[in-house]
Amino acid sequence: MPDIAQLVAAINSRDLTGLVSQLVQIPSISWGPAGEQMGGRFEADMVQFLTDYFRRAGVSTELQEAAPGRHNVLATIPGAGPKSLVLDAHLDTVPVENMEIEPFSGEVRDGRLYGRGACDTKATLGAMMYVVSLLAREKVRPPATIRFTGTVDEETGFCGITALAASGLKADGAVVGEPTDLQLVVATKGAARMKIRATGRAAHTAQPEQGHNAVYDMARVVTALQDRLAPRLARKTHPLVGSPRLTVSIIQGGRRANIVPDECTIDVDRRVLPGETREEVLGEIEAFVQEMRTEIEGAELEVLEPYAFVLGTECTPEDEVYAAAQKAVQAVLGTCRPKGVPYTTHGSTFQQMGIPNITFGAGSIDQAHTANEWVEVAQLPKAAEILLRICLTFGA
Predict the structure, then answer these.
(1) What is the DSSP letter of 353?
(2) Residue 227 above 90 pLDDT?
(3) Which helix H or strand E contains 109, and what residues bound it?
(4) Peptide bond before 223: cis, by omega within 30 degrees of 0?
(5) What is the mean pLDDT of residues 226-246?
(6) CATH number of 190-310
(7) pTM (2 d.p.)
(8) Which CATH class is domain 4-188+313-393?
(9) Gap between the Cα atoms of 375 and 200, Å rounded
(10) How do the domains of the chain map onto residue ranges?
């Protein structure tokens, strides 16, 4: 067993803070006008930075194409035993158009490090990179092989983690890097996103009775979703993440002010509990729409194929990554109360791959995507120590 105390003492807070600041200074926007202005580079500069960083540290590194011009960064520390642990963090951020601060300053002020991605999730990315390079520099052979995966496109289409899954990656556990305020997250909600379409019949608004108004039909569907289906969902519950949530987020219909609309669509976001299946969730929506078909005279309603479906995740105390992470958080913070969160992570894909996983990282989700995004500098060395302890005990 490697000397944990000696390696913890080798963590240099100033170097780690400097690394995270450098990461924040590199634009890696995955969508929106600012991303387009980057000329389609997206995470390319981050990929180059990570590649150079790991190679300087003597870490075996390779690139994996996830989409044209977009690559995951894979780095490996060989372990002494047969098991392997994945440390995953995404390289991209959301846009910066509405930020009130300089988005890429990486400035440290009053104990906080500012900039887009500082919290979500370059603080945790930096901590993972630092731990991997520390293991390499100190020539440590951890009990399990450590596989770092810096993945692209988490904030939009998940093409990075999808490519990782398609590669056939095998592992015995994974730590998904997201801002959790250093708390151990063992359950997350998933999400189902789909469109419901109402089809009517166009007519001149001088004679609306000659047509069939799709907007009117959809208005009744939206009201019923809120008044009827949402309360049904509220009766379901999970001890760590609560109940499913349902939101109508987009509505589109009509062509001109003087034409009875012949089509109207809504986008529905339905949060998924751990243990719920795709068939169960989609079947529930279809059954609701069938109810509405029978109630609204002449209505033509259709549930379109979901354009996104992410399972909820849950890790149990019997899973080795849960136990290792719980002990690590307890050792550093003095207490550990595993929790659940209502948002989705790469953990759902790891779960589909059969890899037990937890979510962990520096920073608060309340700061993610905000106009003044920041992370508390004091959390950085603690995050690194917790990750280091997990790497040094998993698979032992």
Answers:
(1) T
(2) yes
(3) strand 108-109
(4) no
(5) 97
(6) 3.30.70.360
(7) 0.92
(8) alpha beta
(9) 51
(10) 4-188+313-393, 190-310
